[in-house]
Amino acid sequence: MPWIDLTGRATGRSNGGPWGQGPRSPGGGGGGGTPPDLEELLRRSQDRLRQVLPGGGGSGGGGGGGISPVALVAIIAVAVALAGYYLFTFRVQPDEQGVVLRFGEYSRDATPGLNFRLPYPVETVFTPRVTRVNRVTIGISSDELGGAAGRDIPEESLMLTGDENIVDIDFSVFWRINDASDYLFNMVGPEISVKEVGESAMREVVGRSAIQPLLTQARQITETDVQTLVQETLDSYGAGVEITQVQLLKVDPPAEVIASFRDVQAARADQERLQNEAQTYANRVIPEARGQAAQVTEAATAYRDRIIAEAKGQADRFNSIYESYLAAPEVTRRRMYLETLEEVFADMDKVIIDENGEGQGVLPYLPLEALRSGGSQ
Fold it and tell me: Do 143 and 243 belong together in one domain?
């Protein structure tokens, strides 16, 4: 049988001891109301009826001041009904979940609305609010509502990163109750437990990370990792708590070195900028050089192919002439002689003289080349 502290010193969720005054449910629920004093209730009811009923104001004036049996029965019925309402029922609000204990041991859950119970001390009722999202702030002081108030707490916020740097982190953990019975009985001081587990999880995640990602692009990843680790830890405790969100409020270097750190960050930014500029220049120059090299290579390849083709053509021509020479040497020599003369005299002015003819021996010659050139001008 699980034992709990009904005095409320640890959790603040119940009032009264187990054998003294009955505990009152938190949040104003009717579950743990103090049983009314029946004698006092009857006395007050009699006084009110005396004021209402005829002749009930007193014994003076010859009139009887007693209460009739019907009125007395009505008073007793009303008193019993009120006592039964307060003793045997309790109300759970829409944002609450009722947990009923029988002799200090968990008995059942109660849904929102009016519920039945046995009188105290047989059954005791707790009604924690299960829909409200609570907030715990770590690294900075918080106000009564859990929000950040602005006073830094170095012993909570200063953490060591994986690359041996110190970082100042303020963050909030949002949580709600998802199992009222586990929340009430498995932990003492759930808010303190959530805060301590959140700080421990953040230190573990930061200890695995370098400082640069924490300050720039890894904030969301850090929040997700911390939320997962906190939830796993609380589930292992059976805390009955669900972590809805982890929110980083501030991630900075310590105040004593923040100026130097900013100088280092500016130098790294300049380094990255210069590297990017150099990479841009390299991306522009290298393709141009490769294009020029490819152009020279292709020109050399074309020249090589042309020379080889010409050499092969000349060799084939020589071989064909040689074969013709072998077949008809005289004819071949004469053809070669005429072709050579054709090449020699092709671009020369020519005068043809007939030594065997009559007259002056100069044959008329029609300069076709001159006529073609003159016609083209």
Answer: yes
